[in-house]
Structures are given as C-alpha cells and as structure tokens.
Amino acid sequence: MASKRISIKQQHMKVNTMKVNATFETSSIDSTAVEEKLFGQVEEDEDSDDGPVVFICAKCKLPVGDSMSWDGSEDGQNQIRLKRVTDNVLVGKENRLCEVSKSSLCLILDVFCRGCHSVLGMVYASTPKNLDHKRSAFCFNVADIDSYVLGSASQTLAAEGPKEQPVTLEYRGIVEQQLTEMKMLVLSMAQRLEEIEAGLQEGCDDV
Ligand SMILES: [Zn+2]
C-alpha cells in the first residue's frame, strides 16, 4: 500500500513540476511568445495567463496601441490590426495604390509614428467589397512595432542595494577616523581597567 501511495505522490509531483514549467514558458517574454501573439494564434492565447500587450514603435518605443483593441492579424502580410490607436499614430494624407492580393487593388494611406516619423503600417482608404472590414482598422507591420507584455517586468533592486554606500576616498577617511577613535577608546579603557585591578590588588594586600 505504502509504495503505491508514494508512486501516486510522485506522479502528482511530476504533474506539478510540468505545470510550473508550462507557466514559466508562457510568462517569459521570449520572441516566440510575442510572435505567436502577433501572428494570430490569439484564440488559443486568450485563456493563458499572459497579460495584455502594449504595442510600441520599434524605433523610438512610443506606445501606439494595445491588445485591448485587437482586431486580428494578416499572416500573409505580417501585419496586425488594431481598432483603436494612441495619438502617437499619424495617418498620412497621400493615397497610394496597393495590390493586397491578386485582383484586389486597394487605396491605402501610410501610418506614421509621431515620435520618429517611421512608417508603422497603413490604413485602407478604399477596398473592394470583400475587404470592406479592413477599412475600420489600423494595420501595423510586425517588423516595425515591438510589444511589451504587462506584468513581464523582471528587474528588481538587490536586497541591500539602495542603502549600500560606494567606497569613496571621503567615506574611507571617515571609517579610518572612526577606527582610530575606537582603538584609542579601547586602549584607554584597558589602561583604566589595569589601574582599577591594581587598586583592587592593593586593597587585598592591605587586608
Ligand atoms: Zn517611433
């Protein structure tokens, strides 16, 4: 019986460690996790513990939007679509023709970053009827944006960090001064002790 119980417990532990590993894998921000998010496996990811994602300009890191306004992704074009974006995103004024796929020509406007003026993606100004849904969203090139997963910050201060004082010459001088003072104090106390002991000895001798 006992051995059976142990083996069940071991199995239980195995399952637990597997769970822990899985959590580590999903919560660590490696590029694959971000890529999965960007390349549209979002249905699967929605149930995971990953926090919302903030999308930022790859060049100057200004926030351009977040996953709360996620509208989907275009695998073929390496683009993600967001329904709402921040004021850091500027829409250009010049239409240009773009062949999205064979036999679907669209009019598009470039989308810029307000901070560094890089082109981040585009919006559709005019589309064939079958692509109408795309006109209501901002399309970002995956290559031109970065992302930050909320809660993924990992830097902390070391336990003794903020109070630790750098050893400057001045600080060293103070420490040396204090050491000298303590040495003097110890010496004078030893001397005083000697005198007291001598006095006691004399007192004993007198009796
Ligand atoms: Zn920028």
TrEMBL record:
<dbReference type="GO" id="GO:0046872">
    <property type="term" value="F:metal ion binding"/>
</dbReference>
<comment type="subunit">
    <text>Homodimer, and heterodimer with OIP5/MIS18B. Identified in a complex containing MIS18A, OIP5/MIS18B, MIS18BP1, RBBP7 and RBBP4.</text>
</comment>
<keyword id="KW-1017">Isopeptide bond</keyword>
<dbReference type="GO" id="GO:0000785">
    <property type="term" value="C:chromatin"/>
</dbReference>
<keyword id="KW-0137">Centromere</keyword>
<protein>
    <recommendedName>
        <fullName>Protein Mis18-alpha</fullName>
    </recommendedName>
</protein>
<dbReference type="GO" id="GO:0034080">
    <property type="term" value="P:CENP-A containing chromatin assembly"/>
</dbReference>
<dbReference type="Pfam" id="PF03226">
    <property type="entry name" value="Yippee-Mis18"/>
</dbReference>
<keyword id="KW-0132">Cell division</keyword>
<comment type="function">
    <text>Required for recruitment of CENPA to centromeres and normal chromosome segregation during mitosis.</text>
</comment>
<dbReference type="GO" id="GO:0005634">
    <property type="term" value="C:nucleus"/>
</dbReference>
<feature type="domain" description="Mis18">
    <location>
        <begin position="52"/>
        <end position="150"/>
    </location>
</feature>
<dbReference type="GO" id="GO:0000775">
    <property type="term" value="C:chromosome, centromeric region"/>
</dbReference>
<keyword id="KW-0131">Cell cycle</keyword>
<dbReference type="InterPro" id="IPR004910">
    <property type="entry name" value="Yippee/Mis18/Cereblon"/>
</dbReference>
<keyword id="KW-0498">Mitosis</keyword>
<keyword id="KW-0158">Chromosome</keyword>
<dbReference type="GO" id="GO:0051301">
    <property type="term" value="P:cell division"/>
</dbReference>
<keyword id="KW-0539">Nucleus</keyword>
<dbReference type="InterPro" id="IPR034752">
    <property type="entry name" value="Mis18"/>
</dbReference>
<keyword id="KW-0597">Phosphoprotein</keyword>
<keyword id="KW-0832">Ubl conjugation</keyword>
<keyword id="KW-0862">Zinc</keyword>
<keyword id="KW-0479">Metal-binding</keyword>
<dbReference type="GO" id="GO:0007059">
    <property type="term" value="P:chromosome segregation"/>
</dbReference>
